[in-house]
Design a protein that fits this description.
Layout: E1 4-7, H1 11-23, E2 31-34, E3 47-48, E4 60-63, H2 70-77, E5 86-89, H3 96-102, E6 108-113, E7 122-128, H4 131-141, E8 145-149, H5 155-164, H6 166-183, H7 188-207, H8 213-219, H9 226-234, H10 240-259
Parallel strand pairs: 1-2, 1-4, 2-3, 4-5, 5-6, 7-8
Antiparallel strand pairs: 6-7
This protein binds NADP nicotinamide-adenine-dinucleotide phosphate (NAP).
Length: 260
């Protein structure tokens, strides 16, 4: 499956490279990076922006540019790729059939990763028509992510809303928690420390995998206590039960627009 050609090495392409390096998944020399502004010093050992003829060596092509420019990024390289190269796309919303058409009928697998692949704690939703293409994506993502296979491409929109975009929702939640703590009189730095360390600890407890989130929530919620008072707001009218479905619907709508 190597060499792996990365079309785009920005936030997500770079996160995958960092995660693979950390996990010892692929040798740096097996990575070919094509990105107009890539600094070779940032990718030691990798082949950065070689002549187009060199791209024929790639067995796997990771499409990691913004969805808005994927067609132009592909146009330059397609004539130079090997016929049996497998295209692994992380571009939000862009359909496998469209990618396959632009890439001359080559096999395509779609992946929706999260940025925590950079530290081996990513999540990846995978959809492919063929077992072979699916296996290729597993080989790329399993070293750095928890992998979930989807059996219907339309579900990639929902997976993007629940997973690919979700780290940003959590960060936004933490920002709001910090600001609210400061609003209650805490020194902003103390509020930030408390909010961040609390979230990291709570996520680690969940990550141990023994208990459902609802059970973990109950463990810190005494009847009539402070947590129950806050949850009555967060889980009441206009709370998470109303907000999250609306947020998911907005993300799904945007994912569909990006693929149109
Ligand atoms: N970030 C996330 O959390 C996340 C999560 C899941 C999926 N994704 C998907 O990952 C893809 C990349 O997102 P990103 O956040 O990594 O974007 P990004 O940081 O902008 O990275 C894209 C990279 O591609 C480069 N590029 C531009 N034109 C190119 C071309 N013709 N050929 C090769 N490279 C080119 C860009 O360079 P310049 O900056 O110089 O233009 C940039 O370094 C998107 O399709 C997105 O849907 C992202």
């Amino acid at each position: 499956m190597t060499p792996i050609l990365l079309l785009g090495a920005g936030r997500m392409g770079g996160a995958l490279i960092a995660g693979w390096r950390e996990a010892g998944a692929f040798a740096a020399a097996d990575l070919i990076i094509r990105d107009p502004h890539a600094d070779p010093a940032a990718f030691p050992g990798a082949v950065v922006n070689p002549p187009l003829e060199a791209l024929a060596a790639a067995r796997t092509v990771l499409l990691a540019v913004k969805p808005q420019i994927w067609r132009e990024a592909a146009a330059d390289v397609v004539p130079h790729l090997a016929p049996d190269a497998v295209i692994v796309s992380i571009a939000a919303g862009v359909r496998a059939a469209d990618i396959s058409e632009v890439f001359g009928g080559r096999r395509v697998v779609r992946v929706m990763p999260t940025t925590a692949v950079a530290i081996g704690l990513g999540t990846a939703s995978i959809y492919a028509d063929t077992a072979e293409a699916r296996a290729r994506a597993h080989a790329l993502l399993a070293p750095v992510a928890t992998v979930v296979d989807l059996d219907d491409e339309a579900l990639m929109h929902a997976a993007t809303a629940v997973s690919g975009s979700a780290p940003a929702y959590l960060y936004a939640f933490i920002e709001a928690l910090e600001a609210a703590g400061a609003g209650q009189g805490l020194d902003p730095a103390a509020s930030a420390t408390l909010a961040r360390a609390t979230i990291v600890g709570a996520a680690a407890l969940l990550g141990q995998g023994g208990e459902e989130p609802a059970e973990l929530r109950r463990q810190v919620t005494s009847p009539g206590g402070t947590t129950a008072a806050a949850l009555a707001v967060l889980m009441g009218e206009g709370g998470f039960g109303d907000l999250l479905p609306r947020a998911m619907a907005a993300a799904v709508r945007r994912s569909k627009e990006l693929g149109a």
